[in-house]
What does this fold into?
Amino acid sequence: MSIIEKAVDKLRSNAPSVSNKDQQQKDAAGDSQRLEMGKHDTCHDAQDPTPSLPVTEPAKTQQTEILLEPDALMQPAVSTQPDIEIIALNLDGILTDDARRTRQAEEMRMIKRPILQSAFGKKHKPSEHSNLLMVTSAIAGEGKTFTSLNLALSIAVEMDRTVLVVDADLAKPGLSRLLKIDDRSGLTNYLRDEERDIGRLLLRTDIPKLTVLPAGSRHVHSTELLASNRMQQLFHELAVRYPDRIVIFDSPPLLVTSEASVLANFIGQIVLVVESGKTAQHLVKDALAQLDSTDNVSLILNKCKKGFLSTQMGSYGYGHGYGYGNEESDQQ
Ligand SMILES: Nc1ncnc2c1ncn2[C@@H]1O[C@H](COP(=O)(O)OP(=O)(O)OP(=O)(O)O)[C@@H](O)[C@H]1O
Ligand SMILES: [Mg+2]
It folds into this structure.
């Protein structure tokens, strides 16, 4: 090998150090190219409504994409619109404005106090489901739905309380009809396992802290549905999941169907609405006889025309009365 050939060989053996440098230069060029692409992404993203996100960080770019998914964008719109606009329904005798100092509003305040005391007072036991309240009566038309809704509205203004009203009158869903939600899925659909998540059936109202569970689709075996294990589990879940919540069950009359006495077995407090001047005393006694115990029963004397009545009803606990809010009595 000539001296020249040896020199060429030596130069070749030094070649890697030269190509490393080359590679470094290429790498640097590549990085700046990638940065350029990043900038290009920024321009692309600038067309969407969230241009300020630093797109050179892949994780955040990814986050931008997630935020822009159509479902995520639809979520807030769904949650801001109430399902039931009770105020706009302008229902006769339904007190959506708690600030009003009407006799009826005052009476409702007096009715709710002992109920709240029993539900959340020092003596209450969570295991007794004292925050579950059933509104029933001896016969039809005594004012159960009217009382349930007004009581719910009155409790909803309490500072630390939320209210759920359940239309548990599956055969004659008066509350669902009144609120125009009788075509919505509700309690029966849950009990028939057509909907597993009860939360998806609860309807929000325009009254803060008040939600409603409609009766749902009609079912011929409503007593069996209400007596089912699934209903028992639901009672328990409703009672313990939100301990600051009152759940009001607008229920059927005790002497007309067997459903009300079935429901009463799982409920902490029972309110028996008695229509003043109409329901005979023996019917009230018969209705009370349908219940296993009367320790947790309160009576409300409804539609009494001459002001508030507060009567101690023998061994059946305390009694309350409220009546029609006529023009004269409303002006205070
Ligand atoms: N205190 C009251 N003041 C004025 N109207 C009342 C009062 N209570 C009930 N009503 C009216 O009496 C009628 C019957 O009341 P409601 O529908 O609440 O009775 P109900 O016991 O739920 O009947 P049902 O057994 O058919 O379910 C309704 O028109 C209601 O607006
Ligand atoms: Mg009713």
Strands lie at 132-137, 162-167, 203-204, 210-213, 245-250, 269-275, 297-302, 319-322. Residues 93, 137, 140-146, 169, 172, 174, 253, 302-303, 322-324 surround adenosine-5'-triphosphate (ligand 1) (CB under 6 Å). The radius of gyration is 34 Å.
